[in-house]
């Protein structure tokens, strides 16, 4: 039998999940804006500052999405975040990673709770 504390815990977790769900569209908009800023830097490639902002946004989603029922979104963000980290570290090229961010955003626009990408 569930105790009152179990019910309270589940209610708090549901409230946090609802709050996270409400932030997903805003966060995807921020990722879109960060991607646009990276692209606006021109043919020499994005500035480290713009790449860092994009990386931090992806990292934030990757770290918390699974807790709130967006497991695949979190995994997808983690994959792209790691690719972006390689760009920041000089082990990968931005033109290879930018389309991956586009694909992530297209997938998430359809259904960020989908079980697979």
Show the helix and strand layout.
Elements: H1 4-40, H2 48-64, H3 71-88, H4 94-110
Domain HPt: 18-104
InterPro entries: HPT_dom_sf, Sig_transdc_His_kin_Hpt_dom
Pfam family, one: Hpt
Detailed description of the structure:
The chain has helices at 4-40, 48-64, 71-88, 94-110. It contains four helices and no strands. The longest helix is centred in the N-terminal third of the chain and has 37 residues, at 4-40. With 117 residues, it is mostly helical. The protein is elongated. Residues 18-104 form the HPt domain. One of its GO terms (molecular function) is protein kinase activity.
For the record, give the distance between the C-alpha atoms at the N and C termini, rounded to a whole number. Answer: 38 Å
Mean pLDDT: 94
- Report the uncertain regions: none
Which structural class do you get from the secondary structure elements?
mainly alpha
Query: What can be said about the biggest beta sheet?
Result: none
In the CATH scheme, what's the topology name? Four Helix Bundle (Hemerythrin (Met), subunit A)
- Quickly give the CATH architecture: Up-down Bundle
Strand content: under 5%
What is the helix fraction of residues, given as a range?
A: over 70%
Roughly how many Å is the radius of gyration?
A: 16 Å
Q: Care to count the β-strands?
A: 0
Counted up, domains total 1
Give the overall shape, derived from the CA principal axes.
elongated
H-E string: HHHH
SS element count, helices: 4
What's the CATH class label? Answer: Mainly Alpha
Keywords: Two-component regulatory system
InterPro entries: HPT_dom_sf, Sig_transdc_His_kin_Hpt_dom
Pfam families: Hpt (PF01627)
Protein name: Hpt domain-containing protein
